[in-house]
Amino acid sequence: MRSGVQALHVGCAMWSLKSWPFSRPPGEKLRAYAGWCNAVEGNTTFYATPARQTVTTWAEQTAPDFRLIPKIPKRITHELRMQGAEEELRSFLDAIEPLGPRAAALWIQLPGSFGPADTAVLSRFLRSLPAHFRYAVEVRHPDFFADPRGLERVLAEHGAEWVPFDTVAFFDSPPTSDAERDAWLKKPRMPRRDTALTDRPILRYLGRDDPARTVAGWQPWVATVAGWLREGRSPTVFVHTPDNADAPELARRFHAEVRAQVPELPPLPDPAPLPVPDEPLTLF
């Protein structure tokens, strides 16, 4: 572990949403987002391996220290369950190569049916992966949380991180909006887990559509992340809400609350200014 306070990266589940306070042409949306947050979840790669040229444009729109953590495609993790997936894996690794250091880790999100009895499969898969990447694993089977020791041993053996998805605050009380009701049916009920296995912990946090409730629910994480930074770790935190309308502002607020506890933490850059409209705004 390196001494001294490292960077805190914060971001959202995506880099474009119509309601967000910045807008750019389709080929510039990631650049606009990167003016607000310094990390983003690579959810798009979970659904399909992108074209290499598409990934090249992502790299061109972000600084080398921006963290885009691509998910290994569900074809590999969910359909093939990490077995007999050599061709698909080669295609994926070739596609994301232009990201360079921006690919701070490769994200292995596993289905809820993947339990402790399958841990040996994960170990073999991690052993087969190129050593120059970091890896982060997200599990959803409840037995892993009841007794985490077996999974922790496997992850430690391969230098991989365990990605918690904290939904405790979200499920604390019944939904109050359409977006919350939809998320209530789709999101997993996950416990809070705050043990970092590496110097690059990654956290997903799901709040509520009410920003005040989201902020109240993340207070334990402010202290945890501040502690990680004091230990010399460099965390990445992703803030979700059911509608994600305020997610960029909330991610920046989380960073500010951590910095209030760790003043030596470098601040995020000021958000890029909003574009000036070509014509004056009118009421009609």
TrEMBL record:
What Pfam families does the record point to?
DUF72
Q: Which InterPro entries match?
A: DUF72, UPF0759_sf
Locations of Pro residues compositional bias?
A: 264-278
Q: Which domain of life is it from?
A: Bacteria
Q: Where is this region: Disordered?
A: 263-284
Please state what the protein is called: DUF72 domain-containing protein
Species source reads Actinoplanes ianthinogenes
